[in-house]
Amino acid sequence: MESLQRHFFGDMSVMFGRSMRHISRSMDTIITVTIIPIAFMLLFVYVFGGAIKSGTDNYVNYLLPGILLMAIASGISYTAYRLFMDLQRGIFERFHSMPIARSTILWGHVLTSLVSNAISVVVIMLVALLMGFRSSAGVLSWLAVAGLLALFTLCLTWIAVIAGLSAKSADGVGAFSYPFLFLPFISSAFVPTKNMPHIVRAFANNQPVNSIVDAIRSLLAGQPVGNNIWIALAWCFGILVVAYVVAMLVYKRRIS
């Protein structure tokens, strides 16, 4: 058992290193991922911010959680694309001919997604600080925010794995992330949901992004989180389990 674990983690570190080298050689992917969310943040704070009634004097504080989720939703599309290209180039077949744990090929891409999206999140938060973002959160609250963002990244990344393994074209790979990019717009990310029409408000209050945004916003403000944190965790763990199981089934079907 110990030898098996050592073999698995050793293989995974190799796959992770390979995928990270691709990222380090094309940092433009991280730059591209951060530019659009930062542009939205600048647009909403400096153009629309004065007209939006968010119930706070510092709109960038209200806006930031949704922008971070948008950045992650944008970043995972590159994971799907890299997986798709590995399949098209026959990389998977080469690795499968070697004595390695096969699932580590996927885990290498997943861990790379966590790291690259973390870099994007840090860059966006630095820009938000320059724009006036301030937080009274303690260390534990910041750790909770980091954990929630990492969990959200894992959820979307395993969905990206499904897309990367199932897509028939490069265009199809990129298109799957669009719904996740638009979900923050139909939530409390930009405006309070109480200002929305009844039907839209009902959807916004009962979709996963809304509870995650509210939980992160409360944590960063140093305020009581209430049930939002448990609803957010339930959504994330539920989506993660389903996405992981489906991804592994699709993977086994592709390599069989």
UniProtKB/TrEMBL annotation:
Chain ranges passing through the membrane: 30-50, 62-84, 105-133, 139-161, 173-191, 229-251
Domain ABC transmembrane type-2 positions: 28-254
Main subcellular localisation: membrane
Membrane topology (UniProt): Multi-pass membrane protein
UniProt keywords, alphabetically: Cell membrane, Membrane, Transmembrane, Transmembrane helix, Transport
Database matches in PROSITE patterns: ABC_TM2
Presence of the UniProt keyword Transmembrane in the record: yes
Subcellular location: Cell membrane; Membrane
Keyword field contains Transmembrane: yes
PANTHER family linked to this entry: NODULATION PROTEIN J (PTHR43229:SF2)
Similarity annotation: Belongs to the ABC-2 integral membrane protein family.
Protein name: Transport permease protein
Source species of the chain: Alicyclobacillus fodiniaquatilis
